[in-house]
Amino acid sequence: SVPGTKVELTVSCRNLLDMDTFSKSDPVVVLFVQGSGTSEWKEFGRTEVIDNTLNPDFVRKFVLDYYFEEKQNLRFDVTVFAAQDFLGQAFVALGEVIGAQRGRLERPLTGVPGKRCGTILLLAEELSNCRDIVTMQLCANKLDKKDFFGKSDPFLVFYRSNEDGTFTICHKTEVVKNTLNPVWQPFTIPVRALCNGDYDRTVKIDVYDWDRDGSHDFIGEFATSYRELSRAQSQFTVYEVLNPRKKCKKKKYVNSGTVTLLSFSVESEFTFVDYIRGGTQLNFTVAIDFTASNGLPSQPTSLHYASPYQLSAYALALKAVGEIIQDYDSDKLFPAYGFGAKVPPDGKISHQFPLNNNAENPSCAGIEGVLESYLQSLRTVQLYGPTNFAPVINQVAGTAAQVTDGSQYHVLLIITDGVISDMLQTKEAIVTASALPMSIIIVGVGPAEFEAMEELDGDEVRLSSRGRFAERDIVQFVPFRDYVDDSGNQVLSMARLAKDVLAEIPEQLLSYMKTRDIKPRRADPE
């Protein structure tokens, strides 16, 4: 997700243990975070101490960078200040707080044997100062003539100032040819890019005359700020363009022309967190490749082989991706299918058989439930073929098509050894699904060449079928082998896998909402 998604956590506790004999405890909460892929806890920060209460509402908040695609584990320790008595702790993933209803989560505190430690309440809010997007239009009058033959070819360059007084370029307008009175096209820019959320920070604008050889001539400059620009909503603002060198040299110098801000408007850009907090549910479906090319599950060379010491590649990929997604799925029930096998009792080939053998209700409880049903299926079905993706994609698309108001979004995880038999039908299915609230993640296991998968992942070339183009890119493909590192640090490599396959989901969800003009529901205040 976009770097810069910052989440603010507010902490309260209820019914804490009372350690003080004469008065109530003086609690403080310490937050520890776990680095990605390590089990080590580092102190991130602590709240203030509140004297003499068992139901503290802390004022000091924790501000964390939030990444949808990572499991961000948090540990809250509640202790008594001064005495350092331990009052209990809670473990929670940041995604669970954001995925909870209205971004509020209550957890029991544990860790003091034989005692009820009360609860901790967490509220997650996205820091919103920088979600706005500005659209503005400028024109100029009587700019200095810089070209020997024609008039100037002016363009503007915008810079934001940094904390240390340096400037960073943040926007260039187009060049308007051969005029001293240009009108530039309106353009949009995130407020974050213009002033990093600080409305009074200097924004510097340079006016140049474009030259083909790249040695653009400086016409002049002026400075403003976001706050000053935003006043133009009610009136035109006119800036004098000044050239300091000319000003020094010429006594009669007035200016090098003027720039007028013709219009300025701001709109809020909704984020992934807005939709999740507004109640959008992520529904996670799994489809696993049971074709014969995977090898007999009982043989160590098989991609489905699970030794007593090691999960199969299929199980690892399922766990890595599923454990993050499940934080955003309130019922934690995941429909799970297999494809490409002969299924008992009559040995028919199926491309969407429920792993739990229950056609009425193919949902499994939690990722553990999916893993259990997967292992059970391996023992009962016969691996066969061909490898058809379209049936299961169409199945999920059918469910996604039932609710298109933005309250449900579907993610289908297909794990496969990659030799696809129904490429044309699959492309057709994906192009149709691209208009629905769904995304598809494909994890390729084994040594195959995955060119077909790369084509389905429309990053390079937009996917099309029979002349129809996909409305949006909804497929993300990764080869599992890129994540199995030689050191054998599985935790770390699986965290990287999950990160890469899930990184595009927030953008894909937003692109669906945007094209349908669906705004997030406001989380109801309590």
Describe this structure in words.
By secondary structure, this protein is α+β, with helices and mostly antiparallel strands. Helices cover 21% and strands 32% of the residues. The chain has 3 domains: 3-124, Sandwich (Immunoglobulin-like); 131-266, C2 domain (Immunoglobulin-like, Sandwich); 279-514, Rossmann fold (3-Layer(aba) Sandwich), CATH 3.40.50.410. The chain has helices spanning 94-99, 191-195, 226-230, 244-249, 272-277, 313-325, 366-380, 390-400, 423-433, 451-456, 490-502, 505-515; strands spanning 6-14, 27-34, 41-46, 62-65, 73-80, 86-93, 104-108, 119-126, 132-141, 154-161, 167-172, 187-190, 202-209, 217-225, 237-240, 258-268, 281-289, 333-339, 341-343, 348-350, 353-354, 363-365, 382-383, 408-416, 438-444, 464-465, 468-469, 475-479. Strand 5 and strand 6 form a beta hairpin. Helix 6 (313-325) runs antiparallel to helix 7 (366-380). The mean pLDDT is 89.
Summarize the structure.
GO terms for molecular function: calcium-dependent phospholipid binding; metal ion binding. The chain is of the alpha+beta class and 526 residues long. It has 12 helices and 28 strands.
